[in-house]
Amino acid sequence: ISVFSDSVIIDGNFFHQSNDTIVNSGSIYLTGNWTNNNSLSKVFTNGPDGWLNLSGASQTIDGSTITHFNNLELSGTGVKLLSGISTEIEDTLALNDREFSAGDNTVFVLNSAIAVVTNATTPGSEGFVSSANNGGLSRQTLSTGAYSFPVGSSTGILRYRPVDLTPNSASANTFKVRLANVNPTSETYNIALKDSTLCDVNSNFYHRIFQTTGTSAADVKIYFDATA
């Protein structure tokens, strides 16, 4: 299937079952769930600068095989959910004002450019990636600029706590970030075990920052709400 400069609306669910591919340089709007069950295909071919827009209510990306999106945009209403599988975005991830719930899975953004992960900036309406355990938002880096990781959680008290990572070299690295919206002690990081120079450790949430490839050091900037 080839989609050029036009827009295609799929009003309902999408199931990819056989070994075919989509060449997309336009826009596909999906109102239902996305399922890829073909072990031989990531659905979209590499390269074309097309978009898949999850434009419905609460929507799920699932299946037996990871989907490789060219560009992925979240709109509509509700939470967009990865169910039992990770996903890859070749170029741009546009969160807008939606929550992208990865669970134990990972949202991989493969483009190493700085500005390819975007979200709304209105306070209280920021889009974010939420996750659990070893899940998170993964980004490849190839510069010494500040890479934004818009992470948050709607578990318990809704929190948006983004992180900026600035590698100290332009070498190839991959970082993954998760906001854990729980007491660290509940995930085996006992906050009572602290250096004597520390007065207290935040019991409300913490961040998990992974360096999955590369060896460059990085400066870390964590944003928080002063009222908290």
Number of strands: 25
Strand order of the largest sheet: 2-5-7-10-13-16
SS content category? mainly beta
Mean pLDDT: 95
Order of helix and strand elements from N to C terminus: EEEEEEEEEEEEEEEEEEEEEEEEE
Radius of gyration: 18 Å
Q: Residue share in helices?
A: under 10%
**How much of the sequence is in beta strands?**
35-45%
Straight-line distance between termini: 50 Å
Largest sheet: 6 strands, parallel
**Coarse shape:** globular
- Which consecutive residue ranges, at least 5 long each, have pLDDT under 50? none
Helical stretch tally: 0
Write a brief structural summary:
The protein is an all-beta fold.
Offer a few descriptive terms:
228 residues, mainly beta, 6-stranded parallel β-sheet, 41% strand, globular
Write up this protein.
This protein is an all-beta fold and 228 residues long. It is 0% helix and 41% strand. It is built from no helices and 25 strands. The chain has strands at 2-3, 7-10, 14-16, 23-24, 27-30, 34-36, 51-54, 59-63, 67-69, 71-74, 80-82, 87-89, 93-94, 99-101, 106-109, 117-118, 128-130, 136-141, 147-149, 152-153, 159-160, 163-167, 173-180, 206-213, 218-222. A six-stranded parallel β-sheet has the order 2-5-7-10-13-16, with no helix packed on it. A hairpin with a 5-residue loop joins strand 20 and strand 21 (159-160). It is globular. It starts with a strand and ends in a 6-residue tail after the last strand. The mean pLDDT is 95.
Helix and strand layout, with pairings?
Layout: E1 2-3, E2 7-10, E3 14-16, E4 23-24, E5 27-30, E6 34-36, E7 51-54, E8 59-63, E9 67-69, E10 71-74, E11 80-82, E12 87-89, E13 93-94, E14 99-101, E15 106-109, E16 117-118, E17 128-130, E18 136-141, E19 147-149, E20 152-153, E21 159-160, E22 163-167, E23 173-180, E24 206-213, E25 218-222
Parallel strand pairs: 1-4, 2-5, 3-6, 5-7, 6-8, 7-10, 8-11, 9-12, 10-13, 11-14, 12-15, 13-16, 14-17, 15-18
Antiparallel strand pairs: 18-23, 19-22, 20-21, 22-25, 23-24
